[in-house]
Every structure is written in C-alpha cells, then in structure tokens.
Amino acid sequence: MKITAYLVDDEPKALAILEDKLKRLCTHVTIIGSTQKPAVALQQIPELSPDLVFLDVAMPKLNGFELLGEFGSPTFEIIFATGFDEYAIDAIKHCAIGYLIKPIDNDELIAAVNIATENIAEKNALVKNRQLIENLSVKRFQDRKIVIPTQEGLEFLDINTITNFEGVEGYTRIHLKNSPSLLSSQNIGHFVKSLENTDFFQVHKSHLVNLNYIERYLNQGYLIIGELKIPVSRGRRNEFLEMIRTF
User: Fold this and answer.
1) pLDDT value at residue 88
2) What are the backbone angles phi and psi of residue 121, rounded to the nearest 5°?
3) Domain boundaries of the chain, sorted by first residue
4) Exposed/middle/buried for 224, CB within 10 Å: 0-12, 13-18, 19+?
5) CATH of domain 148-246
6) Which burial class, exposed, middle or buried, applies to 1 when counting CB atoms under 10 A from its CB (0-12, 13-18, 19+)?
7) Low-confidence ranges of the chain (pLDDT < 70)
8) Alpha carbon distance 125, 121 (integer Å)
9) Which CATH architecture has domain 3-136?
C-alpha cells in the first residue's frame, strides 16, 4: 500500500536523516512535505492531507503535542519522534500511537511505519488521536484511558477499571472491575510494554496484574483478585513481594 508522509522537526540534521532513512528503507512512503517550523506545518498539513505525519515532540514555541491539539480532529496517522521523555512516551503508548526514540533505529523505523500503514488501511487514526489529546490533559496515570485493539476494532477503557491481563494463545483477555472481560487481538507482551513503570506488575509470563486490586497472596504462590486465582512464577515472587511491601 502506497502512503504519503509529512515530516516536522525543528532540527535540520534530524529532518534530513529521517528523510534519507524513509527513502531508503520505506519505499512505499512518498514524502510530500517537510518543515522545521510548526506554524508552517499547521498550514500545510491540512492543504496536503498526508496519510502519515512524523512529528517531533520537543520543539520551541509549539511542541508536537500542542501542534496536534491545534488540528482539532486530526485524521492522519502519527509517528512521534522524541528523546527519552517518560511522560511523553507514557501518554503516547497508552493510545497505540507510534513513537521513535532519537537517534532513530532503522529496524524500529521500519516497524513503526509498517504498523502505521496497517492503521491507515483500517482508518482508525481519528479516535486514537482524540484519546491522546485527552490523555495529555490528565496528570494521574490511573485517570487515563488505554486503547485496546480487538478483532472488532478499538475499545477505550479507563485504566483504573482493569484488574488484570491474561495471555491466552497469543491473545490477551482483559478482566475488568465491574464489566465482562474482553479479548484483545494483541498479545500480552504488548500490554506489559505499554504499562511498564505503572501500577501493573507482571507476576507470570501470562499474567499482568493491577496491584490496586490484589486482595490476598497465598504462600503456595498465588494471588487472589475477585474470583480469580493467579499464579506468581517462582522467579518473580521475591520481586513481587518487595513491590507489594513498598506499594
């Protein structure tokens, strides 16, 4: 599938490197515009209607998130480029939006572009972009929403309603506080990565739990959440118990 792209980065060297990498590594992408000035991007992107926008997070006067907010209801797919900014990455990945850490790795660029291309075909950028804009205004992790890809489309769940994730044959069953569970088309590794350094802890290769919902820990190596009895692997027990003590 051929797609068009627009690039925004205030650093001319970074912009030139990204252009070169895209031309060499992602030949199905046609670059239809680029700029170092967010104000120019704000004018040109609606005129050019690219499928995909590469957007630097850290820019003077108008950063990448603020620029995105100026579009109102953006329908283009986004790949953010950022230095290591924990808050920025946290907000992005909960919405299933692509991001790259500078300096940009070739393999990570190819993977991000391939995922973006699939998303463009599915036309689901609008809802994800809206959710990112909403998440950016929420400071407390527990008050944010997470985007859950399912076989039917996308589900938007309040993070604080999720009790645990359970890996099931390459899929993930998501257990909720007061609602029936749902099955995501993503494997559990996707959610482990998305929710690292949060209130969730991977107690077993197939189980990621919300520490706020643990009711009991049994000496046999199980924890209880509601009616669920979840195993804690031997290799993770000491770390889990230490985490609980300091939680």
Assistant:
1) 61
2) -65, -35
3) 3-136, 148-246
4) middle
5) 2.40.50.1020
6) exposed
7) 84-96, 124-143
8) 10
9) 3-Layer(aba) Sandwich (3.40)
- Closest of 210, 161, 177 to residue 223, by C-alpha: 210
Residue percentage of the chain with pLDDT more than 70: 86
- Among residues 204, 200, 203, the alpha carbon closest in space to that of 247 is found at 200
| Structure-block tokens of residue 40 | 């120019």
For the record, the structure tokens of 162 come out as: 């999720």
Q: Which residue has the tokens 């995922």?
A: 115
Q: How far apart are CA 150 and CA 107, in angstroms?
A: 26
